[in-house]
């Protein structure tokens, strides 16, 4: 009546070709502890992280602090010149550095999309470790969350940093004075163009390269050389140099006047921008800053900056002047200052 | 909770254990048919408490464990369809099936690889899902014993009634009794009495066990899943065995009657028919499954998506789950148990399901 | 595959078969469950719910049986074979 | 030949019924500055944020620090008993508090999905502001990113906090001794069950409620009352009390033995757990902690805890004992210690 | 960059401005037909530099600005289809169209509301997208003047050649010359000379302007988009006007010939045919558009998705863009300009497009 | 809608019409563009690219015209009407 066969074929799980992040990696159990211990802590080799406590315990810091946070959502995760791992370290370290602080401690919080290959995570973390090493910041606490496939775009990272403010702290954009000189520390728009080209599969060759990098050495050089003649510094990230100019104008109540021809643009960014109808002054940078120095100090500043390879193409691009009808002006071919608009929305390739 | 807490009373449980201990003169071998019983016995320490009295071996009654690999492979192909065709299928499943390995990983892997997989608590919730998402094709993965078949049958009836055309079933239902008979027919059989699965019997009754008891001369006692239910059932088996009796008894009479639930059986009969079905570790079990009958075949995902070509099933050959499911060995006797095979990296289905014998041993067995 | 939980029928939200539904209470929470398979169940009854449908009405008298047996065990360590 | 009509119908943009987050809100331009100023800073009313600088400048802190980070990815954003806004404050504040620190400063980093209604953002931020107020932590720096629709699940938040470690700092789980007593500060599993029921649309009535709340007062009471008799504290978040027990066993090298019947479970969690086949000991909490105290100190600890409404149902659930074969044991009906497994993966409703 | 930088030389530009200034005896009114010209004139400060010489008014030549609201509404419905049906449409568009308001917000709003919208650089990239995603229906929103029509025509040819069936076009192409004629016929016409659009002419040539010049007796000079190109064109117009001449001249001879690009015209003719088309702010322009001809109609998204019912277009009535597009007023003369209407919260299309006259004024005009 | 950028033809990646393609250089970057509309273009020529296809080959002689005119302006402020 019942012809069941008794051969022994057994339902064994076959492993996936490449291991991927599963929701279970974020649920506080064995798999999560294994991932943290064997992938994250191992690569970052941080003692505080290894304790896997709720909070890192840090020694006392003398003097006032700077604290900054950024989430990194760059897509694709890897782009010419960098990746989300180096970016998330440099981004926060640079924010501390331009604020006048010595970067000390960093937290690293990962949001992983279910299905992310573990190998990708490892590569990103190796990049984090290298950048942290290079900039001398210590990763002291972390967090790992996994969200269902489709609820994130591969991998998001938040880094939060604290640093010690070192005298003299540059007073900031509200202290800008008429006559102050404006310097950009490298060709503009490289990061934004690199990421846009990588993301939109525009198939440009050679692929434009991001400027993703540390500004710690440059800020130290400048502070050492200029002392109190250094007014303010800002890494010109989202919105590019244009956005920083608008913010500083608002803070200072002055008009900032720049010359288009003085603004350095690399040939790849130039070509890509023309093709896509974009203006590099409004495109993001990730290792390039705008600085303002006291009138007459720009030569010293440029000399200091040009001694470092990462800021060798620094250039003076303009001056702070009495407030005009327009907050930011740009001089193009006729030598006549024209309004520089604020960027609106994401740069999108256009054919008009 | 009423009808739960009182059946977990420690003093009563101890009394029953003592009664069993007093009754037993030989190490009788009892099989609890259902994974829910295994779960109850191990989680509550009953199996440990009965050490030296009866031997409890774990039956095939985990439908998750016995669902054929081919069905899981097909479910995974359905969930991935949206990536290669305009068929935007969502594979809805009980949470239980999510971690069970097919030829290429589990449904959780499929999800991580971009498949549309959604966990639901009830097949009726999957019908609601289809109603809310007319742009999708919702396929419910209908696994389970006779306990679960009424719910999936009701779901297609609801879909038909509501005019929901984007709902279908991938049916892999299995029937307990043919598997029990297969075990008894096996040359390796050690089972001397069955603790029959309470909730299967809530639907099917136990009348149909009576010919089995006649033929094989062994006690079958229907039990619930709470400690007192299980202990009462064991005591009943032991008394029958000690007295040389072989009867079908009902130790779960608050939920089970001899004829079972007529309304539920009617719904199941309206929608399904008995068929042969491959069981994991067993091969094809004659009359071992249910499939949609002719009137309802248009709700069958296999015919709706008949352009999907079944891939060759990859049947690996390390884990001993066929022996475990047939009660021939206990999980710790498998060489892989707790070493190469753990709930995080399961080699076989019984290590995956929370009802699976290997998982229950891994979690709750005191070594 | 047979997790079945006892709950108390609080009120019917739909009366007509085959899609009758009722609110069932499980300790601190209630959920609407399908009642197609327990046409005899009334408000106040307990039913066993599996995968969102009630598969059995609990017989309150039979539910006492094991405790009666236990009482007998106390008395005489006897065991009645017939329930 | 050309019959163009000249009536003046003009292509005016019609506003959406409800304003939503657009990609442009994350691009560093006018729209982003407006969102930050008029929604975020306004609701949080934080001075440091208002400066919109790269980094907050904070006064010197005496003594050693604690620093912790967490990203919050809860879905749905609003659940009975809380929302992502209160959660992201309590989560980090509690991590500081259980570490023995006085919470001082918080950063708040938002990842917004394109299309998120601004009203939702506002409601979340109001909740952030209330929770920050209640716990006395100051929000000093922030960040806002917008990702394309489908690249995030509505809203993710990272909070990172620093606090001042206050003596005596509880020594931590590695200092656990045999005989130490284990206390849980409320009924377990409430947050996880509340979120699961809300997310999976299980339609349970009344919907189970999260314990999402602050542990600052409770930790202060305990420290005040117990001093050095307080061994360690841990908010039992992902993986629930079970995960903390396993971590502590690993840190201490001891076995932790608990009694099932002593573990408080609320009726809604009880009902939902039975229905879904879950074990509350493995379900997340967000305002409930496990603490370990010196042998004999549990009466004092319980008295201190029970004086606060949020920890009034605290209970002693077990003891640290010599290391056994199993790291964590649980005693169920027969009084026989059995292994307590580590949770694996996300709790999923099951019918087996 | 070669062929860009030399045409931006400040000294040469100044020389041309001076030459124009020397020529002009009256404030001639010139219309630059194309938004790209408007862009070049304002961004580079040429319009300011020429203050007191000629008056430059801005023509209808922004295809983004003139695309009918109904087309945008249809595009939005396509992008939302996947939420209500099994048609998983991706609407691919040039970045330019993303912020242009339809009856219910822009395509960016549609995206924020869950619509499938993807920006591409080239219609050929949309064909690639369709190739990579056989599970989707890719519809390319084919807007633009004669400049762009060859690219979209080539895209359908490529799709047909590669057997890509999940690709189609939502065609909204417009033709410049009928609009120029419409302007000249208007009772409000102030235009005394046209700067014709260089890249339209690169494809179409300028022979067809000759009858227009005869009929309306006004100079038409084809120009490029770089400062020297524009200034040379203006100087040419002014000279003709001052001398009472009316000729078609070509100030963009490095890219434009009298007959235009025959290969491009052939491709366009193979795929498209002339049709009447509603222009935003203009109403229906006779012969003002292109549509797929009978041989290629099966690539038409409107027939492929013919079950979509067009919603009533909501034509609001505040902004003066009809006057702006027809050159009757300049953007700052609109009461809303820079106040209720800014690029962040545009009331009309010309404030949206980076070529739109209102946006160009808002960004670059020195008040 | 008529952003057109001059670029230099570097090499053909596909020769056959109508889907001929070539790598075009724009300052620091190159992109493969469709060449169907400029069958006469050769490697080394400049073309105007719009939306991914070349719509015109640049005539190198004509490109000098404006500068010749400018030179004449220097000389005599004259303006030749015929190009
Ligand atoms: S322990 Fe693992 S490998 Fe062994 S029988 Fe069980 S499932 Fe198979
Ligand atoms: S400024 Fe705005 S409202 Fe006025 S015409 Fe231009 S687009 Fe319309
Ligand atoms: Mg920052
Ligand atoms: Mg930053
Ligand atoms: Mg910065
Ligand atoms: Mg954490
Ligand atoms: Mg994704
Ligand atoms: Mg933390
Ligand atoms: Mg935490
Ligand atoms: Mg914690
Ligand atoms: Mg930021
Ligand atoms: Mg989403």
TrEMBL record, chains A, D:
Domain PurM-like C-terminal, first and last residues per copy: 178-324
Residue intervals of the PurM-like N-terminal domain: 53-164
Source organism: Rubripirellula amarantea
Highest taxon in the source lineage: Bacteria
Protein name per the record: Hydrogenase isoenzymes formation protein HypE
PANTHER family: CARBAMOYL DEHYDRATASE HYPE, HYDROGENASE ISOENZYMES FORMATION PROTEIN HYPE
Any GO BP: protein maturation
UniProt record similarity statement: Belongs to the HypE family.
Matching Pfam families: AIRS, AIRS_C
UniProtKB/TrEMBL annotation, chains B, E:
MF annotations from Gene Ontology: 4 iron, 4 sulfur cluster binding; carbon monoxide binding; iron ion binding
A biological process term (GO) from this entry: protein maturation
Family annotation (InterPro entries): Hyd_form_HypD, HypD_1, HypD_2_sf
Keyword ATP-binding in annotation: no
Source domain of life: Bacteria
Pfam families, sorted: HypD
Alphabetical keyword list: Iron, Metal-binding
Protein family membership: Belongs to the HypD family.
NCBIfam families: hypD
Protein name from the UniProt record: Hydrogenase expression/formation protein HypD
Species this chain originates from: Rubripirellula amarantea
From TrEMBL, chains C, F:
Pfam family, one: HupF_HypC
InterPro entries registered for this protein in UniProt: Hydgase_assmbl_chp_CS, Hydrogenase_HupF/HypC
Domain of life: Bacteria
Molecular-function annotations in GO: carbon dioxide binding; iron ion binding
Transmembrane regions: none
SUPFAM superfamilies: HupF/HypC-like
GO biological process, one term: protein maturation
Protein family according to the UniProt entry: Belongs to the HupF/HypC family.
Record-given protein name: Hydrogenase 2 accessory protein HypG
Organism: Rubripirellula amarantea
């Amino acid at each position: 009546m019942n012809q069941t066969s008794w051969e022994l074929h057994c339902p064994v799980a076959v492993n996936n070709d490449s291991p991927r992040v599963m929701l279970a990696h974020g649920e506080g159990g064995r798999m999560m502890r294994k991932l943290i211990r064997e992938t994250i802590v191992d690569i970052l080799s941080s003692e505080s992280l290894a304790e896997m406590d709720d909070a890192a315990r840090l020694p006392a810091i003398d003097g006032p602090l700077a604290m900054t946070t950024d989430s990194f959502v760059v897509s694709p995760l890897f782009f010419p010149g960098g990746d989300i791992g180096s970016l998330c370290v440099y981004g926060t370290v640079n924010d501390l550095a331009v604020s006048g602080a010595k970067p000390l401690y960093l937290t690293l919080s990962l949001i992983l999309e279910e299905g992310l290959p573990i190998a990708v995570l490892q590569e990103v973390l190796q990049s984090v470790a290298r950048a942290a090493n290079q900039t001398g910041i210590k990763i002291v606490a972390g967090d790992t969350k996994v969200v269902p496939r489709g609820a994130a775009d591969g991998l998001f990272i938040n880094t939060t940093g604290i640093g010690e403010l070192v005298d003299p702290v540059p007073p900031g954009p509200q202290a800008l004075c008429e006559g102050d000189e404006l310097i950009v520390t490298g060709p503009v728009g490289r990061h934004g163009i690199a990421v846009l080209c990588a993301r939109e599969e525009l198939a440009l060759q050679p692929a434009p390269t991001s400027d993703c990098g540390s500004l710690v050495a440059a800020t130290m050089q400048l502070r050492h050389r200029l002392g109190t003649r250094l007014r303010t510094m800002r890494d010109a990230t989202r919105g590019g140099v244009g956005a920083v100019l608008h913010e500083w104008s608002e803070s200072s109540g002055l008009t900032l006047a720049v010359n288009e021809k003085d603004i350095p643009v690399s040939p790849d960014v130039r070509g890509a921008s023309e093709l896509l109808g974009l203006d590099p002054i409004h495109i993001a940078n990730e290792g390039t800053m705008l600085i303002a120095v006291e009138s007459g100090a720009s030569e010293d500043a440029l000399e200091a900056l040009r001694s470092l390879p990462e800021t060798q193409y620094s250039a003076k691009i303009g001056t702070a002047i009495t407030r005009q009808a327009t907050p930011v002006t740009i001089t193009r071919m006729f030598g006549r200052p024209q309004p520089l608009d604020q960027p609106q929305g994401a740069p999108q390739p256009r054919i008009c | 909770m009423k009808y739960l807490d009182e059946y977990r009373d420690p003093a009563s449980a101890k009394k029953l254990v003592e009664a069993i201990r007093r009754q037993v003169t030989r190490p009788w071998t009892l099989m609890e048919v259902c994974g829910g019983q295994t779960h109850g016995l191990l989680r509550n320490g009953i199996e440990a408490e009965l050490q030296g009295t009866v031997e409890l071996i774990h039956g095939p009654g985990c439908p998750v464990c016995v669902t054929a690999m081919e069905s899981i492979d097909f479910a995974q192909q359905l969930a991935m369809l949206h990536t290669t065709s305009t068929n935007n299928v969502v594979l809805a499943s009980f949470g239980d099936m999510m971690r069970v390995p097919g030829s290429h990983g589990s449904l959780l892997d499929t999800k991580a690889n971009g498949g549309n997989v959604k966990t639901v608590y009830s097949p009726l919730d999957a019908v609601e899902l289809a109603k809310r998402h007319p742009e999708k094709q919702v396929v419910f993965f209908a696994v389970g014993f006779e306990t679960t078949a009424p719910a999936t049958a009701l779901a297609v009836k609801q879909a038909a009634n509501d005019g929901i055309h984007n709902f279908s079933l991938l049916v892999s239902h299995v029937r307990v009794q043919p598997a029990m008979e297969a075990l008894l027919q096996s040359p390796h059989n050690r089972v001397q009495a069955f603790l029959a699965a309470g909730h299967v019997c809530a639907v099917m009754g136990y009348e149909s066990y009576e010919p089995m008891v006649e033929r094989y001369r062994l006690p079958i006692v229907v039990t619930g899943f709470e400690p007192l239910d299980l202990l009462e059932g064991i005591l009943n088996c032991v008394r029958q065995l000690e007295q040389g009796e072989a009867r079908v008894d009902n130790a779960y009479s608050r939920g089970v009657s001899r004829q079972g639930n007529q309304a539920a059986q009617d719904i199941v009969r309206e929608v399904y028919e008995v068929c042969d079905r491959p069981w994991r570790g067993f091969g094809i079990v004659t009359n071992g499954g249910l499939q949609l009958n002719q009137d309802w075949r248009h709700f069958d995902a296999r015919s709706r998506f008949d352009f999907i070509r079944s891939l060759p099933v990859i049947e690996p050959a390390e884990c001993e789950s066929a022996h475990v499911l047939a009660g021939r060995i206990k999980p710790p006797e498998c060489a892989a148990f707790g070493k190469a095979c753990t709930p995080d990296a399961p080699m076989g289905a019984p290590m995956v399901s929370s009802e699976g014998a290997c998982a229950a041993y891994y979690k709750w067995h005191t070594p | 595959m047979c997790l079945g939980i006892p709950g108390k029928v609080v009120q019917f939200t739909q009366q007509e078969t085959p899609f009758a539904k009722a609110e069932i209470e499980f300790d601190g929470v209630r959920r609407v469950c399908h009642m197609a398979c327990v046409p005899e169940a009334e408000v106040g009854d307990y039913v066993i719910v599996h995968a969102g449908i009630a598969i059995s009405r609990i017989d309150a008298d039979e539910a006492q049986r094991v405790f009666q047996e236990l009482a007998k065990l106390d008395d005489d360590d006897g065991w009645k074979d017939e329930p």
